[in-house]
Design goal:
about 575 residues, alpha+beta, Immunoglobulin-like, seven-stranded mixed β-sheet, six-stranded mixed β-sheet
């Protein structure tokens, strides 16, 4: 079984066990003997079966099993010890085992809630609060069942529950590591002083655009979605003036995947204020990275990008020949972009398709009708790419793949999630079937450039209840905290930094570090053995563990977040800070 399957199976067993014990207790209280015994038996078997899944998860990594071993296992053991023997001796009045069965149900429910509402990392405070809840619920049930516990027992139960509640609450409110401080602009804010060679102006505003024959309300740059394609040649000094006509929540420009100086990164509250209606901001940077990139607003980005505030940035190494096509894929107002496009191409013409995923979820791309190579990923050329045919690629949110081929005499078609978006002939009958490329084993490998790491960080991605704000929220968390309470990752210039990124959740998290590309070292302990993969966006799927590394060579405070922008808005955002 995969780690994701183990996580799902363990969760299912936990729900089954908690529901079985509770249901058995209620049935016993109602003197429904056959039902009580059946439910309790199912609960006992599910509780014992969890030992297998928890042990398997612990072998994969402590991140996946911490709270299950430290909190759930003792509570489960207590449940079995208390309810098991009573269940076997339930020859008389079945109502006599109602309280033990309910105790087991409360114990298993508390353990389940710890996993669902708290997750990683395990803490003494959560364990104590779980114990307090179990004791309090059991004591209340005891009285409701008219069991008339002695005063000594009642007082002891109350004392245990109160002590656990106070201790757990006290530990929970103890201040943890300080979160990132607001950016105070002490970092060198490199501005290119050379005269710009490429000047652009982008005006953000509300608009109505045509998608698939339908009018859709949008936020747009220069009234179009996507915004104007910005192009440059390596060595150009690019200057972009951003103006906001009427986007009340403000706009910025983030150059996704382009490692600009920190002052040009376009993250409001970190590198600049948001540009409000009637205001403008001028970005300037040197185009020193060839490749396929894109730009988008980072102000209320979950809404802004979804509404259409994005566009393409292409930097070419020099004059090019052949056909060069950008295909930015997006969902606007529930309708897919781009509209299908047909282009007549003569046989033998070199073609480069620049595929860009500007959505917050993964898309499947398939090129049918010809052999092709993946020439670049996230703007970085691959070494020794081999020909592929009838093979799909999965591009994460924010990611880019460049596919190259020589146009055949017969039509070629590009499909996205089964929908044809581009073809070199209207009569193409090709399909999008085929296996999916694993980029970690594609191309010619070379040795890893580093033998040691100066800084090592682990990011455990999960879901949990965030109680720091005025109103509780169920947040996407990193190491048990949500933005803005996630401590920053502090590095020194020149450090070689390694990230271990662990996904405990049942949701894909496309990870994106601003200002740097990272080299993929391994996935699920299997080393990358293809061409070096320098990525700025990569999917960490449920149960996966990625190891990536980079050299800290771009000083500043940088956003480091999930690029499912709804997840980032719901807490999965932290910062990399240079000391």
């Amino acid at each position: 079984m995969t780690t994701a399957s183990l996580l799902a199976a363990d969760l299912l067993l936990a729900v089954l066990a908690a529901a079985g014990w509770l249901g058995g207790g209620v049935a016993a209280a109602a003197r429904r003997r056959p039902l009580a015994l059946a439910l309790a038996t199912v609960a006992l078997l599910a509780t014992l079966a969890r030992a297998t899944t928890v042990l398997a998860l612990a072998r994969v990594g402590w991140w996946f099993a911490a709270e299950k071993v430290v909190v759930a296992a003792p509570l489960s053991l207590a449940a079995v010890v208390v309810a098991g023997p009573r269940l076997l001796r339930a020859a008389g009045d079945i109502r006599s085992v109602a309280l033990p069965l309910l105790f087991a149900g409360y114990a298993l429910s508390a353990a389940l809630l710890v996993t669902v509402l708290h997750g990683y990392p395990v803490s003494a405070s959560v364990g104590l609060l779980a114990v307090a809840g179990v004791v309090a619920a059991t004591a209340l049930s005891w009285r409701l069942l008219d069991a008339r516990p002695s005063r000594a027992v009642s007082r002891a139960a109350v004392a245990v529950a109160v002590a656990a509640l106070l201790a757990g609450t006290g530990l929970a409110v103890t201040p943890g590591p300080a979160p990132a401080a607001p950016h105070d602009h002490r970092y060198p804010q490199a501005r290119i002083s050379d005269e710009p060679t490429r000047r652009f102006t982008l005006t953000a505003g509300t608009a109505t655009v045509r998608v698939g024959g339908h009018d859709v309300a949008a936020w747009a740059f220069d009234g179009q979605v996507p915004g104007p394609e910005l192009t440059a040649t390596v060595g150009d000094v690019v200057q972009v003036t951003l103006r906001n006509r009427d986007i009340g929540r403000g706009v910025t420009l983030h150059w996704h995947g382009y490692d600009v100086p920190n002052s040009q990164d376009g993250v409001p509250g970190v590198t600049q204020p948001a540009v409000l209606p009637g205001q403008e901001f001028v970005y300037r940077f040197r185009a020193d990275q060839a490749g396929t990139y894109w730009y988008h607003t980072h102000s209320v980005s979950d809404v802004g990008v979804r509404m259409g505030l994005y566009g393409v940035l292409v930097v070419r190494p020099g004059p090019t020949s052949g056909l060069d096509v950008t295909v930015p894929v997006h969902t606007l107002g529930g309708r897919p972009l781009p509209d299908a496009r047909v282009e007549q191409v003569e046989a033998g013409v070199p073609v480069r398709l620049r595929l860009i995923n500007t959505d917050s979820t993964t898309h499947r791309y398939a090129l049918a009708g010809t052999d092709f190579r993946v020439a670049a990923i996230d703007g970085y050329d691959l070494g020794g790419p081999t020909p592929l045919r009838d093979t799909a690629v999965l591009i994460p949110a924010g990611g880019r793949y460049d596919l190259v081929f020589s146009a055949p005499a017969t039509p070629v078609a590009l499909y996205v999630d089964g929908r044809r978006v581009y073809s070199t002939g209207a009569q193409s009958t090709a399909t999008d079937r085929g296996p999916v490329l694993d980029p970690l084993s594609y191309g010619r490998p070379v040795p890893t450039p580093w033998s040691r790491f100066d800084r090592t960080f682990t990011l455990v991605l999960d879901r949990g209840l965030d109680l720091r704000g005025l109103l509780p929220r169920y947040a996407h968390t990193v190491n048990g905290a949500a933005d803005p309470d996630i401590p920053p990752q502090v590095v020194h210039p020149g450090d070689v930094v390694r990230f271990t990124i662990v996904n405990r959740s049942q949701t894909v998290h496309p990870w994106h570090l601003h200002g740097h590309h990272v080299l993929v070292l391994s996935r699920d302990r299997r080393p990358a053995n293809g061409s070096p993969l320098w990525l700025d966006s990569f999917d960490v799927r449920p149960g996966e563990v990625w190891e990536v590394a980079f050299r800290a060579d771009n000083p500043g405070m940088w956003a480091n977040h999930c690029h499912n922008l709804g997840h980032a808005d719901a807490g999965m955002m932290l910062h990399l800070v240079y000391s």
